[in-house]
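User: Now give one protein:

AI:
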Amino acid sequence: MIKTCRSDFSYTEIEKQMPFRSLFSLFFVTLLMNLFFIQAMRAYVPGVYVAIFHVVFGENILQNMLVLLTLIFFFLPGLTPVICKKIKKRQLMFFSIYIIAIVRLLMAFNLPSIWQVICSGIIIAFYGFYMSTFFTLWIKEENKIQISHKITLFFVSFSSAILIDYCIRTIGFTQDISLLTSGLIADWQITQYFWLIFQIPLSISCIYIAYKHFPRFSERRGGEDLKEKNNFFKSYYLLIFIGIGIFLFFQFSLFFYPNAIAQYTLTSHFFNNILNIIAVMVVILVVIYIKVELLTNMKIFTVLNGVLLVSLFLFLFLGKIMTYFSSILISITLVIMYLDLYSLIILMTRINFKWVKVKSISNIITISYLFYIMFLILHIFTTDWAYTIEAFQNQGPLILFLAGILFSISSLCSMIINNKKEVKRNG
């Protein structure tokens, strides 16, 4: 039974298909790109909150309007295909790595708030460029590595980046030692400066390893997949956009902030952060050791999403009654959401549209950002801006639960459509 469920994914086997240095560089650089993106998003969103607040109340309007204009950075990845007509995808990928590493280092120097937001936005935009080009080149690279194993390797690097981020914030207590250094002198904030010391070699090593050892993917022209003729399957892509966007919304509105979970459950920040760390570790082990076919099995997928919604409901509406048990439930929800994301990425590899083209990946990233922003603004009206529209007051749990329902529906429906597509193709 164990042998039938166990995945054949093996880092050693992949290493046989690629030089060790190239494979290590691919994993290491991608992990750092994900980590820097996570940190940039967590720096960017609070900056926009503050800017909107000041604009509404007429304070420093010009400066804060400049901050709001940086929202355009979320949509720049959509220009990736246009840029790739001028330069090669491989060149844009390396350029994005260098820019992200350099800008992330600048952020560690305690820049003024407006420059912090601008730098964060630049990282977000170039992360979109990097992911669009890297995913395209990595998936299309002609070698004997299975596509599912390529996706697993990327997903493990993404989950590992989140795991590192959680650990950093555990060390930093409720503070975030991975972001800006503090301007205050208090002893407990001196730990903030350690990240600056750490960021310098981190950025330098990222640039050096990428330059020396990152795989030089081939850029074979032609041979693209054909366009899907059946319009019925176009909804498939929309569902994936929605799913990834809502996943980002949950991460950056709830799961990346153990203090927010603590408020729902009346538990401690440390306890919730440790649970999140355990949850991400479980996800990494599952995707490495469990077969993809088992994770995408329709019956198992449906049961998991049912558990997701029940756990999310109990956490949001009975969290203060169930306290520590509800914290455990939301960690279960976190695990299932990551598995749903993993399944969505796996499903994308089966699309006979043109997703392997840089245009499709950039569209996924850009439209997912759009859905993330939509739900983020909606949630803000129930929390920070609750005083503006009375009907939204105290509706935060409801908005989160509705988002959870939509996330599960998008994941389940995309799986159903994929199965119908497979049946049609085989029939």
